[in-house]
Amino acid sequence: MSSSSLPATSDSLVQAAEAKTPSEAISILYQVLENPASSSEALRIKEQAITNISDLLRQEGRAVELQDLLTKLRPFFSLIPKAKTAKIVRGIVDAVAKIPGTSDLQISLCKEIVQWTRAEKRTFLRQRIEARLAALLMDNKEYSEALNLLSGLIKEVRRLDDKLLLVEIDLLESKLHFSLRNLPKAKAALTAARTAANAIYVPPAQQGTIDLQSGILHAEEKDYKTAYSYFYEAFEAFNALEDPQAIYSLKYMLLSKIMVNQADDVAGIISSPKVGLQYQGPELDAMKAIADAHSKRSLKLFETALQNFKTQLDEDPIVHRHLSSLYDTLMEQNLCKLIEPFSRVETAHIAELIELPAHHVEKKLSQMILDKKFAGTLDQGAGCLVIFDDPKSDAIYPATLETISNMEKVVDSLYVRSAKIMA
Question: Does the pLDDT value for residue 358 go beyond 50?
Answer without folding.
Answer: yes
